[in-house]
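Before surveying the methods themselves, we first show a specimen of the format, giving the amino acid sequence and backbone structure tokens:

:::
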Amino acid sequence: MKNLKKEFPVLSQNTYLNTASSGLLYDSLLDYRQEHDFDFLIEGSMFRDQQEKQLNAVRESIGTFLGCKLENTILTPNFSLGFNTILNGLDKNQKILLLDEDYPSINFSTISKGFEICFASANSSLEENIENAISKHNPNIFAFSLVQYLNGITINLEFLKQLKLKNPDLLIIADGTQFCGTRVFDFNSSGIDILGCSGYKWLLGGYGNGFFLFKEGILEKITPDTYNKAVSSTNYDSSYTNLRARYECGHLDTFNFRSLQFSLEFLSKIGLPRIEENIQELANYAKTKLIASNLLETDVIERSNHSSIFNIKATKETYNSLKEKNIITSLRGNGIRISLHFYNTIDDIDKLLANI
């Protein structure tokens, strides 16, 4: 995929190993965004009159990309806002299972709202730990990231299917922000009830866009009685009182959401199977080299399948040294996090290792 690198100007000056922090803007998307705002410039409110048609096209693109019906696709500016909206509508007497050290947008948001909480450890025995926690604590809800942001540990998707079959009443809510765009995935056939995602990382959609996908009937199951009573006592039209209005409050920005749609189509043209294969080849190469250099934690080494996110043993001084050499990473936890997307190469990994 080297010929695609010229779409991304950042790559001409940097070894960019930081998609887990922020995906890149690229030339084709910039051109599209300029066209979008030019249309708004010359049409004003007439451009906004097309908003619902445009946003439905976005929902359709998301559904096609990830396997979900348009009517079960909710648009949100980011994962955190959508997830908090869901939490605000849940009965506070429910018990929620979390993964220790998961993304704060999940764990802190849940803990701060007063739910009863239990935890499973996200280590080399992740799936076994989850099963044991469910058996011990009997939670109503399991909320977690598909890929752990600190070190890239990834939950087994087939395990989630079996987990749902064994625990049909367990509400499974997953954050796909570090997952969506890295591999082929079909939401409808997964074991996940609700999948949320921000679009600015692996989907390359820029900031200010995200979405939530709901299995059939789940929206109704998590709607509080107070909301239904309020709807029945008003005479507002349905655009203010339907379930979508509960999650899509106010005007949505077509600039941001259509940027996401453009990138979904961009990734689809490249081919998600091709992207997945390339990312996995890079991840396998990186893991082998990092193990040989004694730079990975035991929990990651012992996992048979892993994402393309790695936390390597290094100091802040090393991070600063890499940055001075235009090798872009992130400080996370007790080390340096690297993340590899389809626009990365073996040469990028080798350059990193030569400078650690």
Summary: The chain has two domains: 2-22+271-355, 31-268. The chain has 16 helices and twelve strands. Residues 272-292 form the longest helix (21 residues). The two ends are 26 Å apart (CA to CA).
